[in-house]
Structure formats: structure tokens, C-alpha cells
Specification:
The chain is of the alpha+beta class. The chain has one domain (about 25-353). Helix content is about 20%, strand content about 30%. The chain contains six helices and 13 strands. The chain has helices at about 30-40, 50-55, 115-145, 180-190, 205-215, 265-270; strands spanning about 60-65, 90-95, 95-105, 170-175, 200-205, 230-235, 245-255, 260-265, 275, 280-285, 290-300, 320-335, 345-350. Strands 3, 8, 9, 10, 11 and 12 form a six-stranded antiparallel β-sheet that branches. Strands 4-13-7-5-6 form a five-stranded mixed β-sheet, with helices on both faces. The longest helix is centred in the middle third of the chain and has 31 residues, at about 115-145. The radius of gyration is 26 Å and the shape is flat.
């Protein structure tokens, strides 16, 4: 955890950032990507007005008004009066979670060092961006799992049906059923009146099944390609798979536009408050997650002699820069007034090995 080991020595080559390129390699953040994509989808569950209010809501609660669906009846006789039928409204409170991370830079340690300031700064930005993306990806999956439908009305699902009863609120797909399951998945969604194109977020292992049957085209003995046109796939290593229970893959399926994410930052960062030129707040567009985050920057003299490992007397009283990034992030899914008895938009399935 130190740069001391890379101080210039004649036998070492200049740092090129290639030999260690896999040390902070990125992952596939499929859940985070689906929430971000759906936020700006034409059929998104959030409007530009909601996103604007969310961005300015630091210190306040944010609630979104909704109107409950209702069961109504159609009469077969004419009357002079009709019964009152008032709508029921509700407020859905958006829950934000705070995330913060940061690092320091000691400019003096890069003198006579094969690792330069900019290379180290960029690697730290990458390292924390990677971890933040993993954290947001996991939070998105947690939201999908919490809000998945516990009810499915399709005749393909239930005791004695093609796929049997739900287990853990998930459709159970046997090995023999995998080849044409995606043809049935669209039908299962339609059985609950969810039409159109669908997003599918799967464990990385699902990609093996999808690729296998996606490439069984018209020139093969069995054509399974036809069933995939209505799905947009994403994958994540953070979608859990019950391998101990004989499962090969897990997926969540939902109509496009069913998910959304939003973030907000502190007023000091939004206003760009400056204490002095070495101590200020700003907004920083963080790469990898592609989010505007609050930046708190400070530059001061500190005792850095042992901060970088070993004893570095030339850093006894030297400059230290501090970069602190923070933001509040919320994940929301399509409203369901009664998750116990009514199908929700997010359908889960598990595929056997």
C-alpha cells in the first residue's frame, strides 16, 4: 500500500500502466445500467420534474403522488343516477441512501518516482469508481429482489402448471424447459397484462444459456432464435444463483421503463462554495458510474513522513490534498398498490443446471 517501492532505480522501466492493467479491472454492472437506462426511457416511471426536484431535495423528504387502480363493474341496465366512484391517491416516499468515499494525494512523493501524480490520481479515481459501481449495482439488485412479484396469474405458473408453483417468488425452470423458456417468459408477463419490450437482468451465467439458444438460427435443426426479439439483456456477477440448490442462473424480467434511479447532492457543492482557493466544494462528474457527485477539496500542510509507507523525511512537513466525494442515491420501481395479492412488474425466474 505504498509508492516507496517504485522510487527511481536505474534497472526499472518507466511506468506505462500496461503490465498492471488487470489489477483494477472493471466488471459488468448490469443492474445499475438497467436502472439508469430506464430513468430516461420514453416510458419512464419518473418525469423530468421529479428528477429536478430530487436533485434539489437534500435535507427534505421527496414523495411522488400516485393514484391506485380500482376494480369497477359494468352494469347491463340504464339508470338515472350512477354511484360515486372516487379515486384513491397515495404518496410514495423516495428513500435515498448516502454514499461517500475519497482519498488523499501527497504531491511530494512523486518526485524522483516512476509513478507520476496523474497516473496515481487516475488509478485512485478508477479504483473507487469501480467499487462504487459495484455498490450501486448490488443496491439495484437488492431493490429488484425486494420488489419482485409474489403473484403471477399466467396459467403457465402454479400448482400443476407447466412451470409449477413459484418458489421464493420465482418461476422454476427445469433443464428441459430452458431452450424455449424465453418464448414462455413473454407469455407469462402478458398473463399479468405487462406488454411490450422487456428488460432482463440476469446472473452472468445466464449469458451462456442465452448465447446458446440465440445462435440456434434458421439454418439449425431447431430454431430458437425467434423468442429473443422482445428482450434486452443485461448481466451482473452480483445477481446471486442458488448453485447449492441445483440452479444455473437467475433472472429478473420487467417491462422497459419500470425502473428509475436518481441522486442528489449537498447545497454547498451545488452552489460551488469556496472557503479559499485551497478549500472548496464543487460538483464532479464521476466516471464509470457517470454521476454528478459533491466534491470536497482541501490542500494543506501535514506531516506525511510515514503516510506513504516507510520513513520519508522529505515529506515531514509537506502538502497533502484531500478529495472527498459524496452523493445520495435512490432506486425506485413501478408502483404496486397491493404487492400481496396483485402481480408486480418485476418477475423473477431461476433456471436449473
Amino acid at each position: 500500500m505504498s509508492l516507496v517501492n517504485t522510487r527511481l532505480q536505474a534497472i526499472r522501466s518507466a511506468y506505462a500502466g500496461t503490465l498492471d492493467k488487470y489489477e483494477d479491472r472493471l466488471s459488468n454492472y448490469g443492474a445499475w445500467a438497467k436502472f439508469v437506462e430506464d430513468t430516461t426511457d420514453p416510458e419512464s416511471i419518473v418525469t423530468p420534474d421529479i428528477l429536478e426536484k430530487a436533485g434539489l431535495s437534500a435535507g427534505n423528504s421527496l414523495a411522488i403522488p400516485v393514484i391506485d387502480g380500482e376494480s369497477v363493474t359494468i352494469s347491463n341496465t340504464r339508470t338515472c343516477t350512477i354511484a360515486d366512484d372516487e379515486s384513491t391517491s397515495a404518496l410514495v416516499t423516495v428513500t435515498f441512501a448516502t454514499y461517500q468515499f475519497g482519498f488523499t494525494m501527497i504531491p511530494g512523493q512523486y518526485a524522483n518516482n516512476e509513478i507520476g501524480y496523474q497516473a496515481d490520481f487516475e488509478r485512485k479515481i478508477l479504483r473507487y469508481g469501480k467499487k462504487f459501481a459495484e455498490t450501486l449495482d448490488s443496491a439495484g439488485i437488492t431493490k429488484l429482489e425486494a420488489d419482485k412479484s409474489a403473484v403471477m396469474n399466467s396459467p403457465f405458473v402454479g400448482a400443476g402448471a407447466k412451470y409449477g408453483a413459484l418458489a421464493g417468488d420465482a418461476v422454476q425452470v427445469t433443464s428441459a424447459q430452458k431452450q424455449f423458456f424465453f418464448n414462455d417468459l413473454g407469455v407469462i408477463m402478458q398473463g399479468d397484462d405487462f406488454e411490450g419490450r422487456y428488460n432482463v437482468l440476469g446472473s452472468t451465467t445466464l449469458q451462456s444459456t442465452v448465447n446458446q439458444y440465440l445462435n440456434q438460427g434458421t439454418q439449425n435443426g431447431t430454431n430458437s432464435l425467434f423468442q429473443f426479439g422482445q428482450f434486452d439483456f443485461g448481466y451482473s456477477n452480483r445477481v446471486s444463483v442458488d448453485t447449492a440448490g441445483g440452479k444455473e442462473a437467475t433472472l429478473y424480467c420487467m417491462p422497459k421503463g419500470s425502473l428509475a434511479t436518481m441522486n442528489r447532492n449537498i447545497p454547498d457543492a451545488i452552489n460551488g462554495e469556496v472557503i479559499n482557493e485551497n478549500n472548496f466544494f464543487d460538483i464532479f462528474r464521476y466516471p464509470i458510474v457517470d454521476l454528478d457527485m459533491a466534491l470536497r477539496y482541501s490542500k494543506e500542510c501535514d506531516d506525511n513522513e510515514t503516510a506513504v509507507g516507510g520513513s520519508q523525511p522529505q515529506l515531514k512537513a509537506s502538502v497533502k490534498e484531500t478529495f472527498i466525494f459524496s452523493t445520495d442515491v435512490a432506486f425506485i420501481t413501478a408502483y404496486n398498490r397491493d404487492a400481496v395479492t396483485l402481480p408486480g412488474a418485476i418477475h423473477k425466474a431461476e433456471l436449473d443446471a
